[in-house]
């Protein structure tokens, strides 16, 4: 295995890798090799150059990089060599999900990205389950932990900058938190969910609302609500009083409600950001790969 990125998410995956005597960790890609890490990978395992990192010839690349363009290039390079990829980067995957999927199919590699949508909540898995039950009519979801955390803090009277600083300190926010605040992060997640629900014709949401310092909380709970159907999607700051799935989402909670064409409803909720839940999702994808006999070259699947 090779681990790209060792920050909030990668730093949660690393101890699990080091704890497994049956897993050989052959490289860790980082920007600052001298940074203190605990546990620390052996110095010879640290790389700053993606090409040198891939030259270690791992069976699986676990991508937890914060730079989407480096991430996308790395995923492409790995898949094109038949190396399986587990990614947490919604921006990288959403930037070219069809191309990456085609590449994986062509080389027999597997691309998985459960952690990229919903953090610790198995949202893509739930959409797949719903789709197996029947056609999906509509998805409604809270997809950004930072914004949910901030909306809760703002409703409790905390200042905007303090709420943002707290979300950053907790490891919920993106390296550039404007992705959270402008809805760009939720938009990439909604696109990936829409594609899973409605097929490859899915598009990015056409309306995305920003959470800014001018936001005035009222008495009713407001959420950054992502809604999509087969025609399109949008992300708005919407009142959700009377809808406990969304109204009662504490901290960095995320939730999804999937309504099938026949009226049946599936919903899931949990922690949408942070080290523990997100590293857990990455680990679940990795465990599925291991269980499927990774390295045998028999996959070519995507989730
Ligand atoms: N933090 C969270 O709760 C969640 C994060 N994600 C996604 O996981 C990914 C990682 O997020 P975090 O761990 O929070 O970020 P982070 O900023 O804590 O860690 C990023 C890591 O990537 C490395 N890195 C960045 N650019 C690099 C480059 N050019 N070359 C080599 N290494 C580079 C950094 O050195 C660092 O080790 C992002 O794509 C994020 O959207 C997904 C779900 C939840
Ligand atoms: N910044 C993101 C991290 C998880 O995807 C969020 O706050 O939801």
From TrEMBL:
GO terms for molecular function: homoserine dehydrogenase activity; NADP binding. Pathway: Amino-acid biosynthesis; L-threonine biosynthesis; L-threonine from L-aspartate: step 3/5; Amino-acid biosynthesis; L-methionine biosynthesis via de novo pathway; L-homoserine from L-aspartate: step 3/3. Residues 5-113 form the Aspartate/homoserine dehydrogenase NAD-binding domain. InterPro entries: Asp/hSer_DH_NAD-bd, HDH_cat, HDH_CS, NAD(P)-bd_dom_sf. Keywords: Amino-acid biosynthesis, Methionine biosynthesis, Oxidoreductase, Threonine biosynthesis. The keyword Amino-acid biosynthesis applies. This is Homoserine dehydrogenase. It comes from Brevundimonas halotolerans. The lineage of its organism: Bacteria, Pseudomonadati, Pseudomonadota, Alphaproteobacteria, Caulobacterales.
């Amino acid at each position: 295995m090779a681990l790209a990125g060792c920050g909030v998410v990668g730093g949660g995956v690393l101890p699990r890798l080091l704890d497994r005597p049956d897993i050989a960790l052959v490289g860790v890609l980082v920007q600052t090799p001298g940074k203190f890490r605990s546990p620390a990978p052996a110095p010879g395992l640290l790389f700053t150059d993606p090409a040198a990192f891939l030259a270690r010839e791992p069976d699986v690349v676990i991508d937890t990089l914060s730079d989407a363009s480096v991430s996308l290039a790395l995923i492409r390079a790995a898949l094109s060599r038949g190396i399986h990829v587990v990614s947490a980067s919604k921006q990288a995957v959403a930037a070219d999900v069809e191309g990456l999927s085609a590449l994986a199919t062509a080389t027999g590699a597997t691309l998985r990205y459960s952690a990229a949508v919903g953090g610790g909540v198995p949202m893509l898995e739930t959409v797949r389950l719903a789709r197996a039950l029947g056609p999906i009519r509509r998805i409604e979801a809270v997809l950004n932990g930072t914004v949910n955390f901030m909306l809760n803090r703002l409703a409790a009277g905390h200042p905007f900058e303090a709420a943002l600083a707290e979300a950053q300190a907790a490891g919920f926010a993106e390296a550039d938190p404007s992705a959270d605040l402008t809805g760009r992060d939720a938009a990439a997640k909604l696109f990936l969910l829409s594609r899973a629900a409605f097929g490859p014709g899915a598009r990015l949401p056409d309306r995305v609302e920003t959470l800014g310092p001018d936001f005035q909380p009222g008495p009713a709970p407001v959420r950054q609500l992502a809604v999509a159907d087969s025609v399109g999607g949008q992300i708005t700051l919407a009142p959700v009083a009377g809808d406990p799935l969304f109204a009662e989402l504490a901290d960095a909670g995320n939730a999804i409600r999937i309504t099938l064409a026949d009226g049946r409803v599936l919903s899931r909720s949990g922690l949408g950001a942070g080290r523990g839940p997100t590293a857990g999702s990455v680990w679940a994808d990795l465990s599925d790969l291991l269980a499927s006999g990774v390295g045998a070259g028999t996959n070519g699947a995507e989730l």
